[in-house]
Amino acid sequence: MAPQSVRDRLEAREAYEAAIRQLFSSKTTPVDVYAHAFGNGPFATLYKRRRVLLRPSFWPLLYRLLRHRKQWVRDPSTWSAQGHSARAVVGSLAFHLYCRYPVARFWQAEWTREDALPSERSWLFCRIARGESIHALSCAGALGAPLTRRAAHLFAGMHHAPSFVGAIRMAQCGANGGPRWLGKALLAAPWDELAAPSAENRRDVAIGWMSRQTDLTPRDVELVGRIADGCHDFRWSGRTVASIRRIAEDLRWLRAPAVRRTQEVEATPPLPRWEPCGLAPLIPADRKAKHVSWTVQELCTYGQLVAEGRALDHCVATYAAPASRGECSIWSVRVGGVPVLTIEVRGGFVVQVRGASNRAPTPQERTIVTQWRRLNGLD
């Protein structure tokens, strides 16, 4: 089933098309319909400059331009249409109204997309076109992805980028000295859309690592993308392309097409109990000590995973099926018997360390995890 936002957009488009059909049934020419829609505004005679504006399919863009009328820096009556295609003409109108300074051409594709442009991105276009600092907007979280000063400078001049997200990926790659082909390879799904801020921070670190590898191939880019999105606590320092390939050989879920773990659980029901993986738990030397003690213990039953997920409000219970098959092991970090972290181990690697509501571990918690990891010789 489509998301609610998609269904709302489709319903709004159907209602708009129905209203246009009703207008055409009562008006004799497209000019009369246009005059009925924009006769009392600044776009009343704009169709005379380019007849393509008489197409109702582009009127939603005109409505969006009118909603941001306070941000205009030029009068629409002085607009000189550029380009020959319909989208180029309408995009040039947006550039004329908002751009105090030149901007990259990928913004034209953002303004002329079939679906409605998100309001935050249209406001972002207006602010950048007026000359605001792209780096400052990135630091404020308005851009949706972290950009250094050099990356922000490259982002502003990405005239050859195919889209907004493509410009961000290519700027991140170029700022780290990566080749141009790598920036284009990063546009493959699911990196062709921006994710949550925490995920984008992990992706930025992974892009920096890939940009420094001279023997990287497009296949390796796909593996690195899956590791960055699936292993939230993965460390890139000291890794080589060869080691990443070995990790992919150990972790079968990196080689196979991406599949939701919830679907995997539904296909193979978990066992109620399974054997321990053989790693040593972390137990305090003096159990009678009065101070609060840290422990790391394995969860080997479905009931323990459910209790862990309820205590920390995350989805560790969905890992019961792969854990029962021996594909991974789940560990609980506890303070005085109270769970505070959950660890996932696959193929001799710690791939995830998550706290309540999937938060990242604190420095003190990282010290405990590192102590346990060194005890077992894990990476």
Question: Can you walk me through this structure?
Answer:
The structure is a single chain. Strands 1-2-3-4 form a four-stranded antiparallel β-sheet, with helices on both faces. The chain has 18 helices and four strands. The chain is about 50% helix and about 5% strand. With about 375 residues, it is of the alpha+beta class. It folds into three domains: about 110 residues, no CATH class; about 120 residues, no CATH class; about 110 residues, no CATH class.
Brief summary:
This protein is 48% helix and 7% strand. The protein is α+β, with helices and mostly antiparallel strands and 379 residues long.
Secondary structure blueprint with pairings:
Elements: H1 4-26, H2 30-38, H3 59-67, H4 86-98, H5 106-111, H6 119-129, H7 134-139, H8 149-156, H9 164-175, H10 180-185, H11 197-211, H12 218-230, H13 241-250, H14 252-255, H15 261-267, E1 294-299, H16 302-312, H17 320-324, E2 329-335, E3 338-346, E4 349-354, H18 363-376
Antiparallel strand pairs: 1-2, 2-3, 3-4
Helix pairs in contact: 8-9, 9-11, 11-12
